[in-house]
């Protein structure tokens, strides 16, 4: 079991160890898991401050991922509350319509989205990218499950005290589902950070590139410099790994609970 | 009084629309309208460069062309082969989940280990595998040569092996997700079922086939549905690893769609591929909802 786990991790270990080596040692065989010669500082310096600096791609990714997560949490929580705690006549079938769109494969609508973005001027902008990731049916569905778990007495007593739905939502309901929002936020952040397809199609300007496009560009330019490419890969994965390890319980519960994949 | 409740009702209606409004606008503009547009465009002959005037209605031409298009048929076939990854990673994940579930220590360590490929970006992972699978100097082939395989496969550079290589990586990535879901499923099986089986003297295998497997069937069903659907949507891995090559050996529907639309700029034709993709996913979902009644224990 332990050996199998290590075997599973080997590609990562190889990546990490290669990122510390001088280029000529990368393909040495037998594999030097612990580098004989170290070149770590120079490698990472080149990746972060060289001709195609990762720092810029990083900043773009952080910006896009954070704003997408924030907006998506807000939109999904509002809708989830509306679908579970507000008694309005259209609610039931509106929910079914929204849920049905979950089945639509994203790639099947790429072309019209692309045309639409070109028309309204959202193409090649971070705002466009953020909007694409902000209307998540999955988030709405997940949070709705949790809102349904809140007893209606809470909502009603707030109403009797004269609070409208918006006040109830922000002061009572939202704080109660905070763990669920946190879980969804972590997942959304990870998915947005890792997203390759949308930036590939909706971004053109190099300056706007997110880390996923950045690393691919970097690897095609640096072609044979595998130590640098591995340093880039480590840089792209590391922040996520940290977030995942910190939020491990949330992530795993969220995945197991919603059975989500996206 | 009556007027009062009427006003209250109206307020409630309004509040409902306000709460779901943003989501509704997003879904309408970014999903509902585009899906209608996809179906409309799939019956046209249109090129990005041509502008709106260049749009011509083409009826079913695109579709008849598609089913005579070698590249599309090859992509469709590859999609079908790619489906094989689903049972493979489901079985491996189940095996690992059962093993991990038995252990008392290091549970969360193993969860993190097996989850890492799933959490990592496909681009980074693909780049690492590209180097690992390097035909001459990659570690995989160096290892194979050192244990006596003189002619190891060229992996992603070899048309006969490329799809298999991509599938292997896909299995490696997907195990983590399936494992987590299976672990959750295992934890919800009541202990007393196993205790009762112990009293009856059932062995490990009998317990597995008579209790674990049937009790997990809703989980398996769920994983099968999501797995098959996501196997139709595999794009990142192909785009970063092989770009559909060599010799079209790893082209799948979504890759061909991307190429047709965004490289060759043929909007109408690409939309027909999109429509077929959509119908495939729809059909699978539908079939599985019908099928599940027969074999899922709730």
From TrEMBL, chain A:
InterPro entries on file: MetI-like, MetI-like_sf
Membrane topology annotation: Multi-pass membrane protein
Domain of life from the UniProt record: Bacteria
Signal peptide (UniProt feature, chain positions): none
Chief location of this protein within or outside the cell: membrane
SUPFAM superfamilies: MetI-like
Subcellular localization(s) per the UniProt record: Cell membrane
Keywords: Cell membrane, Membrane, Transmembrane, Transmembrane helix, Transport
Transmembrane segments: 57-81, 93-115, 127-147, 168-191, 225-246
Ranges for domain ABC transmembrane type-1: 58-247
Family in the record: Belongs to the binding-protein-dependent transport system permease family.
Protein's name in the database: Carbohydrate ABC transporter permease
Organism of derivation: Paenibacillus thermoaerophilus
From TrEMBL, chain B:
Location of this chain's protein in the cell: Cell membrane
Entries under CDD domains matching the protein: TM_PBP2
Positions of the ABC transmembrane type-1 domain: 75-288
This protein's record includes keyword Protein biosynthesis: no
Similarity comment: family membership: Belongs to the binding-protein-dependent transport system permease family.
Protein name stated in the entry: Carbohydrate ABC transporter permease
Keywords assigned by UniProt, alphabetized: Cell membrane, Membrane, Transmembrane, Transmembrane helix, Transport
Record organism: Paenibacillus thermoaerophilus
Coarse class of the protein's main subcellular location: membrane
């Amino acid at each position: 079991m332990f050996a199998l786990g290590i075997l599973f991790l080997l590609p990562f270990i190889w990546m990490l160890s290669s990122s510390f080596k001088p280029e000529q040692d990368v393909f040495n065989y037998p594999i030097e898991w612990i580098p004989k010669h170290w070149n770590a500082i120079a490698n990472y310096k080149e990746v972060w401050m060289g001709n195609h600096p990762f720092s810029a791609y990083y900043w773009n990714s952080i910006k896009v991922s954070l704003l997408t997560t924030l907006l998506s949490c807000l939109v999904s929580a509002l809708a989830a509350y509306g679908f579970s705690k507000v008694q309005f006549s259209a609610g039931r079938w509106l929910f079914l319509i929204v849920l049905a769109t979950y089945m639509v494969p994203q790639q099947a609508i790429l072309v019209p989205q692309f045309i639409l973005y070109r028309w309204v001027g959202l193409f090649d902008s971070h705002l466009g990218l953020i909007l694409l990731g902000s209307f998540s049916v999955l988030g709405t569905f997940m949070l709705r499950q949790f809102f349904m778990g809140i007893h209606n007495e809470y909502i009603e007593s707030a109403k009797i005290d004269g609070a409208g739905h918006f006040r109830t939502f922000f002061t009572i309901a939202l704080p109660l589902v905070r763990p669920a929002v946190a879980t969804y936020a972590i997942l959304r952040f990870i998915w947005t950070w890792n997203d390759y397809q949308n930036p590939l199609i909706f971004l053109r300007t190099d300056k706007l590139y997110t880390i996923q496009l950045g690393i691919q560009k970097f690897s095609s330019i640096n072609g044979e410099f595998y130590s640098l490419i591995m340093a880039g890969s480590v840089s792209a994965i590391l922040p996520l790994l940290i977030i995942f390890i910190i939020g491990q319980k949330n992530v795993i519960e969220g995945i197991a609970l919603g059975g989500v994949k996206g | 009084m009556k007027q009062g409740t009427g006003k209250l009702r109206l307020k409630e209606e309004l509040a409902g629309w306000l709460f779901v409004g943003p989501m509704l606008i997003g879904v309408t503009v970014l999903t509902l309208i585009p899906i209608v547009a996809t179906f409309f465009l799939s019956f046209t002959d249109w090129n990005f460069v041509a502008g709106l005037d260049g749009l011509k209605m083409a009826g079913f031409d695109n579709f008849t062309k598609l089913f005579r298009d070698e590249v599309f048929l090859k992509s469709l076939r590859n999609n079908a082969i790619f489906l094989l990854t689903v049972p493979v990673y489901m079985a491996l994940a189940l095996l690992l989940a059962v093993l991990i579930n038995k252990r008392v220590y290091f549970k969360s360590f193993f969860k993190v280990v097996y989850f890492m490929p799933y959490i990592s970006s496909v681009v980074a992972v693909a780049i690492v595998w590209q180097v690992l699978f390097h035909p001459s100097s990659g570690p995989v082939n160096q290892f194979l040569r050192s244990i006596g395989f003189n002619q190891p496969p060229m992996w992603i550079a070899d048309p006969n092996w490329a799809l298999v290589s991509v599938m292997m990586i896909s299995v490696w990535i997907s195990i983590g997700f399936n494992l987590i879901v299976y672990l959750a499923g295992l934890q919800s099986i009541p202990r007393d079922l196993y205790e009762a089986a112990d009293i009856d003297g059932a062995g490990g295998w009998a317990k597995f086939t008579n209790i674990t497997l049937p009790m997990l069937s809703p989980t398996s069903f769920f994983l099968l549905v999501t797995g098959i659907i996501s196997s139709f949507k595999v794009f990142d891995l192909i785009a970063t690893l092989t770009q559909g090559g060599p010799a079209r050996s790893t082209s799948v529907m979504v890759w061909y769609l991307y190429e047709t639309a965004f490289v060759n700029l043929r909007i109408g034709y690409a939309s027909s591929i999109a429509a077929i993709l959509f119908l495939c996913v729809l059909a699978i979902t539908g079939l599985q909802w019908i099928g599940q009644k027969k074999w899922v224990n709730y």
